[in-house]
Amino acid sequence: MISQKIIMKNIFFILTILFIAGCSEKDLDVQPTDKLTDELVWATPENANLFLNDIYNNLNPGPWSSVYTLLPTEVSNDPLDNFSDNSVSGPLAGIPSYEKFVNGSYGPAVPIFDNHWANMYRNIRKANVCIEKVSASTFPDATKKSIIAQARFLRIYFYKSLIDLYGGVPIITNVLNRNIDPEISFPRNTYEECIGFIQKEVTEILPDLPLKVTGKDLGRVTRGAALALKGELELYAGKFAEAAATNLSIMNSGAGYGLFPDYGTLFHAANENNSEVIFDVQYAPIVKGTSKDSYWGPVQVSDGTGYAAVNPTQNLVDDYEFTDGKTASEGSALYNPASPYTDREKRFYASIIYDGSTYRNGVIYTRLGVPNNRNEFDASGAGGKQRTGYLVKKSLDPTVIPGPANLNTRTGGTNIIIWRYAEVLLNYAEAKNEVSGPDASIFTAINLIRKRAGLPDLPPTLGKEELRQRIRRERRVELAFEGKRLFDLWRWRIAEQVFNSPLKAMKITVVNGTPVYERVNVGGGKINFVPSKNYLMPIPQSVIDKNPNIVQNPGY
After folding, report:
1. Considering 208, 228, 251, which residue would you say is the last residue of a domain?
2. 517: left (phi over 0), alpha (psi -120 to 50) or beta
3. Distance CA 427, CA 123 (A)
4. 84 near 68, Cβ under 8 Å?
5. Whether the model pTM is above 0.70
6. What's the whole-number average pLDDT of the chain?
7. Chain segment 438-469, per-residue pLDDT in tens
8. How far is CA 93 from CA 26, 63, 287, 307, 403, in A?
9. How large is the C-alpha radius of gyration of the chain?
10. How many structural domains is the chain composed of?
11. The domain containing residue 129 runs over which residues?
């Protein structure tokens, strides 16, 4: 049981104190604090760490969605991959990816992530309070440096979560008080200013962060986590030379990072805090649990029920190579159209539930014609059925029983990984290739990942453009269902190209006892994407109503 999970049980001890820190109803505003309460919170390092722990407790795996579960996307019933060509939402009503994103009906008055802006600035304010109060304290110098460095990391985590969606946002680094400060309605900083701010913050806090954490400190930020944030930020910003250097520094850090041997169980609770994990958001059953296994899992399994909220597309399935290192479109000799799921790489079997898969001590059929089969394919999702012919397996924990108990009491407690070593290798390879083209270090990085997947090395003769496309495919498959694909499509500026054609599904019928496989369009799978505006999300109108100095993103 890791420390952050224990910490969560102690959070309630100071709920009243913490409420004052985060009760503002205005996104960039604060409320007056009680002097006695301040004295209690900041009287000892132990109390200050409780305040810091509460900020950790607010870490979000993905943006806060407007879906009715009111959760960050990666533990909700509408994760970010549903906003891409990797998957579509299942047979649920009121799902933003299906009802807003696909048809392009979202906008300032109808945002997809309407709670995200306010929640992030509430957390940023808490971090600012922590930094200010600890800076003014008489705590031992080492203690002060450690708490402040952690709070500054958490602050830039929340800032990155904003700029990934919206571009430039107001940078607020002090504690505002509307009763004292003459101006609290700040305009947006530019995207470039936000990138520079985060880069500078990471550089300054690194000396005060530990290389590793163990025991009760598991779950806290390390140098590797700060560098992983910075390296991903730089990659997204197209700062390839800096991204390559930052990710290489993680690879050479001596922190002991490496690839976990088994991709399939990498994401299970039994293997939390393994050598591949650089930073994750901590969860614990019931105390701070999730219902992810019920949301994402099949509608019908041998020991429970689920929502089937994540339906992988045929488009994604096509990118899983056969064990000879080729896809069907590349002429793999192992591809058999009468048995298309045979001889695939290991990540396919660890990630995708396909027709005939064994899952939770039963066999899942998505084909048509199996009596009383609630997992049957229907492109429209009619009757509560899934819409692509596939269901997701990756990251679902076999020890969590999906169904009412999991939904009502959140019995899932698996940590959600934000950055892991495989992504660092992918980030380095992509950035290095963009800077200087193919070299041995790039192939070494990618081939480590491919070896774990049971695939041969990449051909060493690939040119820069060929290698770029192979890295992108490797990234898509390796990081599927981890909330990265939408941001990749955005930063590569290929979303309009990818979304120009309908997403595909697999319809399976049985004719004379033989399955017949037919690629069909996903119902509602044609995504309406307007490149002049949809490479950023709209800032919610409620934010602009409160702060007229905020300028809306172009096109909205």
Report:
1. 208
2. beta
3. 28
4. no
5. yes
6. 92
7. 999 999 999 999 999 999 999 999 999 999 99
8. 31, 20, 28, 11, 18
9. 24
10. 3
11. 1-64+115-208
